[in-house]
Design a protein that fits this description.
mainly alpha, Clc chloride channel, CBS-domain, 3 domains, four-stranded mixed β-sheet, 56% helix, elongated, transmembrane helix, antiporter activity, ATP binding
């Protein structure tokens, strides 16, 4: 491990030097004004950058802080009112108002085009690099196995997977396609390619974009709730996540690209929103764009535009007005159209899993469907608990200090175990596609190795149930081993320092379990068609049971058990497969899996990771039923130092600067005097700093002894006093307040629905204390017998 750590550090230092060189060449003069440290009062830093802008528009937020939704809404209303009034002055101003109104639709169009293009490129690259582990196309090395063989004139239908133009590595290097030596060479190169892809991916993430790791959905949910994480949606993150997503999926690790595609689409949304001042200067409006971008991400991940909109509404968005719903639909539509134009799967469809079943489902089949729902709920609970335990161990032990070594070890274990089993060797998407497929007359899969009746004269689309052949029994054993392997390895894979999605591995687990159940029910119906449960709907010689449908239902159940999705899950599944007729089985499995999983815990995998990382996320789904009051939660508590406040007209500039230096609060209540403590308003820390800096540079006579006042008229001052500083323009005269006897149930509801950063606690107009969003989260954790200090970003 020590040698591995030394080698890892040397390589990462080289890559860091490379990044510095690229930064100088690509972004030589780029500075991000959002990265200002508001606490730096004396250093020059980047603080002065804000003074080049008009002062009233300076209000931004520090990193790892929560936005004020009410303030952002008010600022957007003022901006819109100003544009509307100016539009009546001239034709040019009217045209500018129209451009402002249409800017939202333009941003949605650009997001859809870029997200769809990136998804198509990722799909094509993954298809090629996955096959590269096993061989290469001689006519064009950039062709995947399927593309190579279908463009060959020497390929026959019976041997459509074998063609002279595609050669395995053993054929190319030692001119052998069979035998132990050829198998060992192919096995070795498969492992080496997987390790190479994984090492390159984790190294790029560590050096260039640490935020490109993981699924991204927990962080997207937190950002959409109002939390600021600078750089998480930046250009480097977009670039590196796109490249490394191809590498990690191609390496064969038990992860998917669907969750990270939501992150990629949100990076696109953040980039395009920064081009329009309407969104770049308003964090609330920016989050409307990100909600629509999340819908576009799911749209291209699954080829499900409607499911993408519902996913954004149900799972990730915190504030989702009707206007955002329309724009999300438009962005998802454009993204799906772009992906369809690229046609990455070569089947003229948006998805790889499109199926057509020729047999309806029957009421008696609801019982196995519900059993699959129970399995999905239990699997979801098991996965969440084990994965969170492993991730917590990674964060609290020395294991977390060697992320590159961890990725290499997990990749090696995955490749070594996966290669001998054909169902784990292939890509997970291809595995799910095969499990979903119905067995037609032209299928060559082992899962379709049934014993045919030589006298059968039925059409090929209406093949009756048949006894299973030896290939089916072999496939069942291989699927059972693959199922156990996927369940175990996914627990350790999800959460590593590489892009990792969970949708596809969860669906694969459910699809394997469902296919085995489907084959079991099919054979039971064939051999015991006279049983009472089969007698009414399954006659001899009829096509009664579709095992592929069971795989589809199982996939939905396991995905629902892990994520706790319901409505959006069902819509995504029928868009993903085209199985509109099978909504009821999907609904039954999704609801059952959620009920079973909720019986063991309300948190889905994304909420669990939010709590693990200590993000200040106030989930609207959580219920608060405790009988506590605002006075039990507010600061200061008994025995603590009194609340730091500003007075309306008795503090000097030096007093205010000293208060800012000695504290790290985001803002300060303003009172009439420290004796009366009658509340006047609330001043943000950041704006106080900028206002004082601005005044010292641009206003004559403002010195350390100048009186700071927040009233309309200046206070009466003795002769020869320095020029006072008026800061009323940065004062919020209507801060949200509650009384000390307000139930915390009401306070929690207010924080959820209004998106507050803080509220002030008063009694008869007299300031008593303050409650912040983190105070609320700490109190909720304490009431749930959890560590209240875990609700801190780490």
């Amino acid at each position: 491990m020590v040698c591995g750590g030394i080698l890892e550090n040397l390589i990462l230092k080289c890559l860091a030097k490379l990044r510095e060189s690229i930064d100088i060449l690509v972004f030589p003069l780029h500075t991000d004004s959002n990265m200002v440290n508001a606490g730096d009062m004396n250093g020059s830093g980047n603080l002065m950058d804000f003074l080049d802008e008009p002062f009233p528009d300076v209000g931004t937020y520090e990193d790892f802080h929560t936005i004020d939704w009410l303030r952002e809404k008010s600022r957007d209303t003022d901006r819109h009112r100003k544009i509307t009034s100016k539009s009546k002055e001239s034709i040019w101003e009217f045209i500018k108002s129209l451009l402002d109104a249409w800017s939202g639709w333009v941003v949605m169009l650009l997001i859809g085009l870029l997200a769809g293009t990136l998804a198509g490129v990722i799909d094509l690259a993954v298809d090629w690099m996955t096959d590269l582990k096993e061989g290469v196309c001689l006519s064009a090395f950039w062709y995947s196995h399927e593309q190579c063989c279908w463009t060959s004139n020497e390929t026959t239908f019976d041997d459509r997977d074998k063609c002279p133009l595609w050669q395995k590595w053993s054929e190319l290097l030692v001119s052998q396609s069979e035998g132990a030596s050829a198998y060992i060479l192919n096995y070795f190169l498969y492992i080496m390619w997987a390790l190479c892809f994984a090492f390159l991916a984790v190294s790029l993430v560590r050096v260039f974009a640490p935020y490109a790791c993981g699924s991204g959905i927990p962080e997207i949910k937190t950002i959409l709730s109002g939390f600021i994480i600078r750089g998480y949606l930046g250009k480097w993150t977009l670039l590196i996540k796109t490249v490394t997503l191809v590498l990690v999926v191609s390496s064969g690790l038990s992860l998917g690209k669907e969750g990270p595609l939501v992150h990629v689409a949100c990076c696109c949304g953040n980039f395009f929103s920064s081009l329009f001042s309407k969104y770049s200067k308003n964090e609330g409006k920016r989050r409307e764009v990100l909600s629509a971008a999340a819908a576009a991400g799911v749209s291209v991940a699954f080829g499900a535009p409607i499911g993408g909109v519902l996913f954004s509404l149900e799972e990730v968005s915190y504030y989702f007005p009707l206007k955002t719903l329309w724009r999300s639909f438009f962005a998802a539509l454009v993204a799906a159209f772009t992906l369809r134009s690229i046609n990455p799967f070569g089947n003229s469809r948006l998805v790889l899993f499109y199926v057509e079943y020729h047999t309806p489902w029957y009421m008696a089949e609801l019982f196995p469907f519900i059993l699959l729902g129970v399995f999905g709920g239990l699997w979801g609970t098991l996965f969440i608990r084990c994965n969170i335990a492993w991730c917590r161990r990674r964060k609290t032990t020395r294991l977390g200090k060697y992320p590159v070594l961890e990725v290499i070890v997990i990749t090696a274990i995955t490749a070594i175990i996966a290669y001998p089993n054909p169902y784990t060797r292939r890509s997970t998407s291809e595995l799910i596609s095969e499990l979903f497929n119905d067995c037609g007359a032209l299928e060559s899969s082992q899962l379709c190795d049934y014993i045919n009746d030589p006298n059968m004269t039925r059409p090929v689309d209406d093949i009756p149930d048949r006894p299973a052949g030896p290939g089916v029994y072999t496939a069942m054993w291989q699927l059972a081993l693959a199922l156990v392997f996927k369940i175990v390895i996914t627990i350790f894979t999800f959460g590593m320092k590489i892009p990792s999605g969970l949708f596809i591995p969860s669906m694969a687990v459910g699809a394997m379990a469902g296919r085995m159940v489907g084959i079991g029910v099919e054979q039971l119906a064939y051999h015991h068609h006279d049983w009472i449960i089969f007698r009414n709907w399954c006659r001899p010689g009829a096509d009664c049971v579709t095992p592929g449908l069971y795989a589809m239902v199982g996939a939905a159940a396991c995905l629902g058990g892990v994520t706790r999705m319901t409505v959006s899950l069902v819509v995504i599944m029928f868009e993903l497969t085209g199985g509109l007729e099978y909504i009821v089985p999907l609904m039954a499995a999704a609801v059952t899996s959620k009920w079973v999983a909720d019986a063991f815990g309300k948190e889905g995998i994304y909420e669990a990771h939010i709590h693990l990382n200590g993000y200040p996320f106030l989930d609207v789904k959580d219920e608060f039923t405790h009988r506590t009051l605002a006075t039990d939660v507010m600061r200061p508590r008994r025995g603590e130092a009194p609340l730091s406040v500003l007075t309306q007209d008795s503090m000097t500039v030096e007093d205010v600067e000293t208060l800012i230096k000695e504290t790290d609060y985001n803002g300060f209540p303003v009172v009439v005097s420290k004796d009366s403590e009658r509340l006047i308003g609330f001043a943000q820390r950041r704006e106080l700093i900028l206002a004082i800096k601005n005044a010292r540079q641009r206003q004559d006579g403002v010195v350390s002894n100048s009186i700071v006042y927040f009233t309309e008229d200046p206070p009466e001052l003795p002769p020869n006093s320095p020029h006072p500083l008026k800061l009323r323009r940065i004062l919020n005269l209507s801060p949200f307040t509650v009384t000390d006897h307000t139930p915390m149930e009401t306070v929690v509801d207010i924080f959820r629905k209004l998106g507050l950063r803080q509220c002030l606690v008063t009694r008869s107009g007299r300031l008593l204390g303050i409650i912040t969003k983190k105070d609320v989260l700490r109190h909720m954790a304490q009431m749930a017998n959890q560590d209240p200090e875990s609700i801190m970003f780490n």
